[in-house]
Amino acid sequence: MQKLKKLVSYYSPVNRWALKVLARNLIVFRKTWATNLAFNIVEPLLYLAALGAGLGVMVEDIEGMSYTQFIAPGIVATSAMWAAAAECSYDSFVRMHFQKIYHAIVATPINLEEVVVGELLYGTFKSVLSGTVIMGVIAALGLVLSPWALFTPVVLVLNGLVFSQIAMIWTGIVPKIDNFAYFFTLIVTPMFLFSEVFFPLDVLPQILQQLAWLLPLYHVVALLRALTIGLVSAELIYHVMWLIIFILLIFPLPQLLMRRRLIK
Amino acid sequence: MIVVEAQSLQKNYNGFPAVAGIDFKIHRGECFGILGPNGAGKTTVVAMIYCFLPISGGKLTVLGKDVTLEPRSIKTKLGVVPQENNLDLELTVRENLLVYAGYYGICRSEAQKRAKELLHFFGLSTKADQEVEQISGGMKRRLTIARGLIHTPEILILDEPTTGLDPQSRRLIWEHLRKLKKRGLTLILTTHYLEEASQLGDELIIMDKGKILEEGKPLELIKKQVGAKVVEVEISPGQSHALLGTLENLISGYQIAGNTIYLFVAEDENAAVELINSSGYVQTYRVRPSNLEDVFLKLTGRGLDYAETEETGFIL
């Protein structure tokens, strides 16, 4: 009973206090959104141009899609991943460590766990926003074939929560801001390369295909690709469930690590 | 009415006792000063009061509530001015107040009104729409205090409020704190500036190495521990004991630091001065009113800036 209570307590910071932390970040976002979004959007479009229009010419159609069409949903997923990962690593670290904003907030009625959840919500917000905008651009380019793509933001919420949390776990651990390089090299980049964004995984050895199943981004890409081409089936629920379970399972970790880091 | 009460309050960091079982009471409306050198445990004590650090032992109640049980409702009624400025650098001066008001759930129009009053009170009205980065250190400090008052707290906690400021800014902050005190706000203040402690503190505790060495009102503490006057004597080191021998009955204690002896005069400084003059050992001397630093020196054998004195003696 006691243990159950403890377990539930990790999910209770999803409350109105956490929303106040999100509100603080949104006030800052309102001042910087233009530059903020521009970077998030230009880069994926460069990828799409170089790989789709460039490399794509030399690649035959994949599962009936042109190469540009094949990679477009993956580019949406990865740039949304980058947005969440960058927000809850570098940006959160600056707020936590250099600006001492977490310290300032926990002197008010808000507690540290709620600060962490507020940050995760903001990372998710930025991730969903930039992913959705890119999806819009891709749709305008005629690369979206189905109205199912309107469900993109729902998938991006899951995506944003996953990567905000993974990044926040690192923020709770890393001694110095430079150490985030490991996070991006060891976690984010492999995710980017091996989640069926650029090529179908069945060209890889069986064992690597199975390992890809462990990558959260793989499930996000699968969902977004299905939505953009309108190939929606009950099987997709497995990917959704995978992401939801992953989010819930690691949910206590960012809070625990941040408490261990800041409160002696 | 007691607003904060600590009973055998303890805090350990990995087994190291930063606060080693202390007791104190803070009453409504007073300015309670915690004086001590860096590392004495002052910040740890206030951080436990504002429910940032969990206590390791004993009991601590704030406004009648236990810090381990009801931190949220305690924090609603406390204002905190931390040692390190942690203003929100991404916001303007006014936004810092408004966003902070939001953390307390204060509605927008009420927050606007409070922010306007506080900016006026702290002389920041003309800076309201500037970025925090652009204002001076003294202004940042005042803004941090204003931020701590945005929700009209019952107690304001100030951790080293003037450390690192120039004397002018420091005095200005003291002026503001005095006004707040007059309005009946309870202040809890940590400092290693004895002038600050004696200027503002109604009640003081003097801390060192996690313990309370002495407590009381500043003037009473000085009177009780070192008497009204101190004679500072320049003397060659070899001769200090000879001088002390002749003064034995006239001083309550002494302190030797390099070529200077601090003599705590028991009753009559004129008699002591006469003896010093006629002793023939003394190059120069100076009589001055004693202060809290002397109390601290006497209690610890060290200055507040960590300078170790070589010898301390007391004739009780």
Could you please describe the fold and organization of this structure?
The complex is a heterodimer of chains A (264) and B (316). Chain A contains eleven helices and no strands. Chain A has 264 residues and is mostly helical. Chain A has one domain (20-262). In chain A, α6 runs parallel beside α11 (252-262). Chain A is globular, with a radius of gyration of 19 Å. The longest helix of chain B is centred in the middle third of the chain and has 16 residues, at 167-182. Chain A binds chain B through residues 20, 23-24, 27-28, 31, 99-101, 103-111, 263-264, and chain B through 13, 50, 52-54, 71-73, 75-76, 78, 80, 82, 84, 86-91, 95, 99-100, 102-105.
Apparent shape of chain B: elongated
| CATH class descriptor name of the largest domain in chain B | Alpha Beta
Which sheet architecture does the biggest sheet of chain B show? 6 strands, mixed
This entry's quaternary arrangement is heterodimer
Which structural class do the helices and strands of chain B define? alpha/beta
- How many domains would you count in the coordinates of chain B? 2
CATH topology of the largest domain in chain B: Rossmann fold
* Strand coverage percent of chain A: under 5%
What percent of residues of chain B adopt helix (DSSP H or I)?
25-40%
* Rounded mean pLDDT score of chain B: 89
Q: Which structural class do the helices and strands of chain A define?
A: mainly alpha
